[in-house]
Specification:
The protein is of the alpha/beta class. 33% of the residues lie in helices and 18% in strands. The chain has an 11-stranded mixed beta sheet with strand order 1-8-2-3-7-4-6-5-9-10-11, sandwiched between helices. Strand 10, helix 8 and strand 11 form a beta-alpha-beta unit. Helix 1 packs across helix 6 and helix 10 runs parallel beside helix 11. The chain is globular and about 60 Å long. The termini are far apart. The mean pLDDT is 94. It binds threonylcarbamoyladenylate and magnesium ion. Magnesium ion binds next to loops.
């Protein structure tokens, strides 16, 4: 299959491109498109055979449910068995935006889309290309991140092309995404609302809007947790780079010194070593494969660059990567969640 890449200006949407993409969705085909978080791989959410094509293209296990993307709140109402009171509050505050809500599904949603589950994940993305595509197709669009299963999520169309070329008919290239890590997932089917995946929308932001406590799925916190994560996708080693990734945690000067020493040791043993640094520390490392993830004070930039850097290290055939730690105040938890998973929870405290 030939993959057509259509460039599309988010500030001035070309309706001809959107129409062409929407036709493919209506025919049950796949289209990759930008959202504000990461690129998604979309198909008609209410058609089993369309959902199945997503799993095939990604090489994704079929028990890992998809997020249904909508353009209007009523579309959530149309596929939910019941609409929890919190859903309206959260939608008013955060939609369109990087928040996914889990609700009980009704019979319209096929089990292919929900990976056999009785619940469905729903999100209204804050990206003009995504919203136009949903509106124009007249479909609800199931879309996981548009990467091959096991690779970092794509934050630009070129990443999608590397993973999906020849496997899908179309990629809408709307340029690099704004946020760079996947949406926060909140489960509204529990007595206490529960975060299944941390993201740009934090627990504090959710609690403030809901006026009640929000908990975090214990299954996603510890490496050796007895409990399995409730979101099936969080149990897979999702964001694994080819290299062995080790996070080094501690006071900056000590971290820099420790990483330099470890790098020298590995290099002496003939290994190809990379470093994930920040603008502030970049010059202080003595490996030729040092990449800055951004300024430490700029959390948004760190989130935005994370997956791109992991992909770049993959291309360089690096064997070991040492990374600084980024437990920054706001989205640090989301960043560390992704990094810890990529590192298989290897953390060195110095
Ligand atoms: O930002 C995002 O959410 C991006 C963009 C494209 O919207 N999408 C995304 O989808 O990250 P995906 O498929 O890569 O991740 C969806 C996660 C998986 O971990 C999946 O297991 C979980 O959501 N999930 C989906 N439906 C669920 C459900 N009914 N119950 C629990 N977890 C669910
Ligand atoms: Mg994904």
């Amino acid at each position: 299959m030939q993959t057509k890449v259509l460039k599309i200006n988010s500030a001035d949407i070309d309706n001809i491109c959107i129409k062409e993409a929407a036709k493919l969705i209506q025919k049950g085909e796949l289209v990759a498109f930008p959202t504000e978080t990461v690129y998604g791989l979309g198909a008609d959410a209410l058609r089993p055979e369309a959902a199945n094509k997503i799993y095939a293209a990604k090489g994704r296990p079929s028990d890992n449910p998809l997020i249904v993307h909508i353009a209007r709140f009523e579309e959530l109402v149309s596929i939910a068995k019941e609409v929890p009171k919190q859903a309206k509050l959260l939608a008013d505050a955060f939609w369109p935006g990087p928040l996914t809500m889990i609700v009980w599904k009704n019979e319209k949603v096929p089990y292919e889309t929900t990976g056999g589950m009785e619940t469905v994940a729903v999100r209204m993305p804050n990206h003009p290309v995504a919203l136009h595509l949903i509106e124009e197709s007249g479909c609800l669009i199931a879309a996981p991140s548009a990467n091959t299963s096991g690779k970092p999520s794509p934050t630009e169309a070129a990443h999608v092309a590397l993973d999906m070329d020849g496997r899908i008919p179309m990629i809408l290239d709307g340029g690099p995404v704004g946020i760079g890590i996947e949406s926060t997932i909140i489960d509204l089917t529990e007595r206490v609302p529960m975060i299944l995946r941390p993201g740009y929308i934090t627990r504090e932001m959710l609690e403030e809007v809901l006026g009640e406590e929000v908990c975090i799925d214990p299954g996603i916190i510890a490496a050796d947790s007895e409990r399995k994560p409730k979101a099936p996708g969080m149990k897979y080693k999702h964001y694994a780079p080819k290299a062995d990734l080790i996070l080094v945690e501690g006071q900056t000067d000590v971290v820099v010194e420790a990483i330099n020493r470890l790098v020298s040791e590995k290099q002496a043993a003939g290994q190809k070593v990379g470093i994930i640094a920040t603008d502030e520390t970049m010059e202080r490392y003595n490996s030729d494969c040092t990449m800055s993830i951004g300024a430490r004070s700029d959390e948004d930039a760190i989130a935005r660059h994370l997956y791109k850097i992991l992909r770049e290290f993959d291309d360089l055939d690096i064997e070991v990567i040492y990374s600084e730690s980024f437990a920054t105040p706001r989205i640090g938890q989301a960043i560390m969640n992704r990094l810890l998973k990529a590192a298989g929870h290897q953390v060195l405290t110095v």
